Amino acid sequence: MSLINPQDVIEYTEIEAVKNRGSKLSNDIMQAEAKVFEIVGHDFSNLEKYPDLPEKAKLALILWAEYYAIIATDTGNKTGKKAEAFDDYSYTNGSMKEPDTDSLLRTYIEDGSSGERKVTLRIRGL
Which of 21-25, 41-45, 47-51, 77-81 has the lowest mean pLDDT? Predict the structure, then answer.
């Protein structure tokens, strides 16, 4: 069972393409959950620790679900087109950035999860 439902995403978003995803929005939510679970290192199923889904985690899930829905409906990404022009109308397909949910999820990250940002530094002698 999902932690959020399609209605949560529909109520949050202002993007019509996301609202019109229908049953496909459930798949976007599934991707969002996988992403958030990877970041925090757990699935919020510990009822002692999380009797209810924290609001910040819920918002992060909604943001990721919206992101995946937008990516799925972006036909420019699928066709590889970066720009088109028709008479006096032009369209440029910009690359969409992933939602920044680090500050929302920081307090829920468990040790050893991929949510902990690791930095690798390589030094070369001259």
Answer: 77-81
